[in-house]
C-alpha cells in the first residue's frame, strides 16, 4: 500500500508558482520523523544506512531522500509493524494533514508553500511526538483491558 506520493500532489490543481518537489515536503517530514523514531523497516534501515546517517546529521532532507530513493512515495513496505499501525491511524487519516496545516501553513497560500527546513521539521516533529504518545497510550490501554 502506498500512503502518499509526491506526484499525487504536484499534478492537477497544484500552485503554478512552486517547483514540483514542494509536493513532497509533508511526506519528507513524516518520513524523517519515522526514521528518527526507529519506525522504518529493518530492510530499509540496512539498505540506506549511509543516507539515514546523513538525514540524522541534517545533511540530507527527508523530502530529498524520498524523491531520490523512493520514487517520491511513502509505502507500507518502508515501515515497521508499529510504524505502519501508527501511519494508518495518523497519516492515512486527516489527522496528519490537519496538524500540518495548523502547525505550519499559517498565512501561506497552501500546504505546498511550507518551506522544507529543519526548523519547520522540528515544529512538526513535536506535534507528531504528541500524537504518537496519545496513540501509544490508547493502544496500550486497549491491550491491558484484555487481561
Give a brief rundown of this model.
This protein has 147 residues and is mostly helical.
Task: List the topology elements.
Layout: E1 2-5, H1 6-10, H2 25-36, H3 42-47, H4 49-56, H5 62-69, E2 73-75, H6 81-90, H7 94-105, H8 118-145
Antiparallel strand pairs: 1-2
Characterise this structure.
The structure is a single chain. The protein has helices spanning 6-10, 25-36, 42-47, 49-56, 62-69, 81-90, 94-105, 118-145, and strands at residues 2-5, 73-75. The relative contact order is 0.17. The chain is 61% helix and 5% strand. Strands 1-2 form a two-stranded antiparallel sheet. α2 crosses α5, α2 (25-36) packs across α8 (118-145) and α7 (94-105) runs antiparallel to α8 (118-145). The chain is mainly alpha-helical and 147 residues long.
Q: What is the molecular shape? A: globular
Low-confidence stretches: none
Briefly note the structural class of the backbone.
mainly alpha
Largest sheet: number of strands, sense, barrel closure: 2 strands, antiparallel
Tell me the fraction of residues in β-strands, as a range: under 5%
Strand order within the widest beta sheet: 1-2
Structure summary, number of beta strands: 2
| SSE string, helices as H and strands as E | EHHHHHEHHH
Terminal CA distance: 32 Å
Name the helicity range.
55-70%
Mean pLDDT: 91
Multimeric status of the protein: single chain
Query: What Rg is obtained from the alpha carbons, in whole angstroms?
Result: 15 Å
Number of helices: 8
Amino acid at each position: 500500500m502506498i500512503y502518499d506520493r509526491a506526484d499525487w500532489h504536484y499534478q492537477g490543481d497544484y500552485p503554478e508558482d512552486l517547483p514540483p518537489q514542494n509536493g513532497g515536503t509533508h511526506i519528507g517530514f513524516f518520513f524523517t520523523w519515522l526514521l528518527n523514531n526507529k519506525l522504518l523497516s529493518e530492510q530499509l534501515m540496512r539498505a540506506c544506512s549511509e543516507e539515514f546517517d546523513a538525514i540524522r546529521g541534517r545533511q540530507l532532507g527527508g523530502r530529498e531522500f524520498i524523491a531520490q530513493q523512493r520514487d517520491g512515495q511513502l509505502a507500507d513496505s518502508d515501515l515497521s509493524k508499529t510504524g505502519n499501525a501508527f501511519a494508518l491511524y495518523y497519516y492515512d487519516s486527516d489527522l496528519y494533514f490537519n496538524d500540518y496545516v495548523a502547525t505550519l501553513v499559517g498565512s501561506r497560500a497552501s500546504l505546498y508553500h511550507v518551506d522544507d527546513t529543519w526548523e519547520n521539521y522540528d515544529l512538526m516533529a513535536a506535534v507528531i511526538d504528541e500524537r504518537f504518545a496519545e496513540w501509544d497510550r490508547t493502544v496500550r490501554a486497549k491491550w491491558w483491558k484484555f487481561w
